[in-house]
Amino acid sequence: MGRKKVLLAILLTTLLGAGTALAADPTGAETIKADPGQAVDFVWVLVCGFLVMFMQAGFACVEAGFCRSKNTTNLFTKNLLDFVAGSLAFWVLGFAILMGKDWHGLIGTSGFFLAGDSYDVSTYLSFFWQMVFCATAATIVSGAVAERIKFSAYLLYSVAISAVIYPIYAHWVWGGGWLSKLPYGLGHLDFAGSGVVHAVGGLVGLAGAIVLGPRYGKFDKNGKPRAIPGHNIALAALGVFILWFGWYGFNPGSTFSAHHLRISVIAVNTTLAASAASITALLIILLKTGKWDLGMALNGVLAGLVAITAPCAWVESWAAVVIGIIAGIILVIGVYLLEALKIDDPVGAVPVHGFNGLWGLISVGIFADGTYGNYSITPPFVKGLLYGGGAGQLIAQIIGAAVLFVWAFGCGLILFKLLDILIGIRVSPREEIQGLDILEHGTPAYPEFYTMRR
Amino acid sequence: MKEIRAIIRPEKLEDVLAALEAAGHPGLTVSQVEGHGRQAGLTEQFRGREYKVDLLPKLELRIVCKDEEVERLMKTIAEAARTGEIGDGKIFVYDVLDAMRIRSGERGDVAV
User: Fold this and answer.
1) What is A36-449's CATH topology?
2) I want to staple A79 with a disulfide (CB 3.0 to 4.6 A). Which of A60, A256, A296, A448 is the partner?
């Protein structure tokens, strides 16, 4: 059984109060007595979860570095508060919808507030893991809507994605929902969340960027796109290094077990895809402009990481490199495509997380080599097109990707349109030009640039 | 009294200061400025998109001196700041009506 199914089973039994061995165990004594090996699994999952939480810092640095200094306070506040508000919303609603008792494959219905029988070490472990993943999806959107969204609107969006939009889709894939039970291949598979986390975040972000419209000055009078250079490339680069490091928790930790030694394969694949995508993006821009473009190389790293997130456990090294190269190409095409469509995505969140998240899902159906199962080291193993698995898995992946696009983009459009009607989501032109730091927050990030009266 | 305003390349500041020191250490003020003369701007790029920087960073030196020192100081600055490439900058000279040393209240030539 897969880790999610195991957890679901544990959750269900605890909630139904059946079986003394699996009853709620807030002390942890029963759990470790039943299987002493659980200790190392708990440590593995928690340490990896801590790394995933630290990716929040990476996102904050990337976004602030790629945007202008006048919006730095705003971007860091958004990245802090989407985690703060999102973790609470996930505790109230999200976790129950994601991992609770399944209702017709659509939605989970138990475990609100982690109350009752959810007071259990295994359930809390599952909550922590799913919570940091949910927060990652939420924070991706911040970059796509940067430098022009009202903070109040962003706060409401954070609650909505963490409480409802993310958990429902995640339930379909990881909570025992209908996508995981598709009658093709082993059902729709997304190992660590190219789709569930990154494509959901990226496509909700796309909706947000469309509803908001481009930043003042992004397109000139003739509609020609203009570069709006970020204010701190060093900060952006540090952010990418932090994210890359955090990804070693995100992907290997998704085995949910330290007993799956497949974690070494996952770590290598994660690295190779990131490197291949980065150098691909770098070389494409070098051919175009004759210059070594760090900004695109940094985005390339993230594109590769996102793409390998779904297939990382099911492919071998050469496939990771190929997946990365294609991710780099998709990234560059995506960046220019959005500009051609007059959509302003200040940090490239949509091509990095949205487009490459979908590519990661599809790549599973092509490159999965039949050496690892559904979060399991015993058969049935996942096999793609190139390894004699036929088209089944690929079909399941394409269906999942299509459903994801409709769900995330659709929910995003409805949410941001609704917020726009209710409270207005865009700051005034005056505020946008002066920067959100001063008028939204009253705290310029770099006050030494101003002359102050004491 | 005259004021010499010299617009120079930022990277030439140390050479110019050393030359002025050798020429008798006149007082000076340095400001960071942006501008362009007949020199075109630079092309830079961010995440794959190029953009033009029309105004380039320069330094402006201001030196107030006695009339008879102007010629010598202009030559000193020009020699130290010159690379021979476009963008070396310019030197302008203005009349100064009066001056006061704030500490002592002295006026005119003795104050500069």
Assistant:
1) Ammonium transporter fold (1.10.3430)
2) A60
